[in-house]
Amino acid sequence: MLTGRKYRLDLTPDQAEFAERIGGVCRSVWNTALEQRRTYRRRDAWIGYHEQARQLAEAKQEFAWLAEVPGHCLQQTLIDLDQACSRHGTWKVRWKSKARTRPSFRFPEGAKIAIERLNRRWARAKLPKLGWVRFRITRPLGGAVRNATVSRDGTHWHVSFLVEDGALTPQRHDHPGSAAGIDRGVAKVVTRSDGIFHHQVFAREREVEHAATLQRRLARTQKGSTRREHAAAKLAKALAKVRRRRADFAAKTAHTLATGFELIVFEALPTKNMTAAVAPKPDPGQQGAFLPNGAASKSGLNRSILDKGWHRIELATRGKARYTGTCVITVNPAYTSQTCNVRTVVDRKSRQSQAVFRCTSCGHTEHADVNAAKNILTAGRAEHARPRPGARAGARKPRNHVGRKANRQATAAQGHATASPELAGIPRP
Ligand SMILES: [Zn+2]
């Protein structure tokens, strides 16, 4: 199975400076190539990866600053742009601004990256043109390296390797028949249908205030000044800390969920209203209650600091599920918070407050999130059991691996039944 391994790099000042430069060149190649694609489109023409790669090779003859950075990283940038444009359309792909994008570049040829262990804590990797880079080997690589991505997160540089670890998805989960519905929320990040909460505060109130102060300080500095650079670095550091906590929480929660359940049901997240949904009207006494108004809660800073990482939890769970044989599905979230899970009666008034659900019909009382999670599970079970005609294995997420195998056997048997008369040489009438 392909999996990621991320380590913190210990670059020499020269290497860090060079890495920054490579990131900058990749960014400008992205922007130039995107602008070129748009110019072509305005003239009703089209330019693709191959022509852009050819022009890049030509430009490298002319400009030393292009030639000095690893060529494969630039090519990879063009490939990434090509994929982004074909997936989202040339007009929806965004510029990479210097202030907002964190530098990142990929070395696509894993076979050419040598990795050596230096001692218990340190290892080094040889990257084209960057040379030997040291990193803290906090966990074993555990497989063959396919590619390496170098990126800066706040002040630190990291390398992440894409690794083929040779693991296979088990045929059956360790707990056959187990299932959980998952409700993601603000008051509790994750609520399970069995009444268990997974919760963590990613940024304490003081930290949120501190980030806001840093943001204001940054806004008062002049563009291009040293003071601005310092302020930006401080803010980036504060945000990176919150981001790490969120990633850690997502990984741990995903592990618990995937090892514990054979079927996990999430509510499908809205893609367009995500920004509005990240920080809904804060409850008094809850995190984020001091936010001045709803509009501010959608703004960039508050979004990055108050984000609960709902999407990330789902992604991490899907990643873990490959190792446990768990099936992860999503269902339409409509009415899950207003429906009584005992008699499936829908009434908006049943949701008495953020935390309390009391059915107006049968009087059933429960924690509102647990009730929602149970409804999500019910919907998920129905979805899971429904046969999908025409669904091919691998075309979408398989419902479960046993089912997929059974399907394959069934098709094989079918093929055999129809093929045999001809093979036997029975003459057609
Ligand atoms: Zn009821």
From TrEMBL:
Where the record annotates domain Cas12f1-like TNB, the positions are 310-376
Q: Offer one example of a GO biological process linked to this entry.
A: transposition
Instruction: Alphabetically list the UniProt keywords.
Output: DNA recombination, DNA-binding, Metal-binding, Transposition, Zinc
Q: Which family does it belong to?
A: In the C-terminal section; belongs to the transposase 35 family.
> From what organism does this protein derive?
Nonomuraea jabiensis
Q: Does the keyword DNA-binding apply?
A: yes
Task: List the InterPro entries hit by this protein, alphabetically.
Answer: Cas12f1-like_TNB (IPR010095), Transposase (IPR001959), Transposase_put_HTH (IPR021027)
Mind telling me what this protein is named?
Answer: Putative transposase
Any idea where the Transposase putative helix-turn-helix domain is? 1-42
| Residues covered by region (Disordered) | 379-429
Q: Does the keyword Metal-binding apply?
A: yes
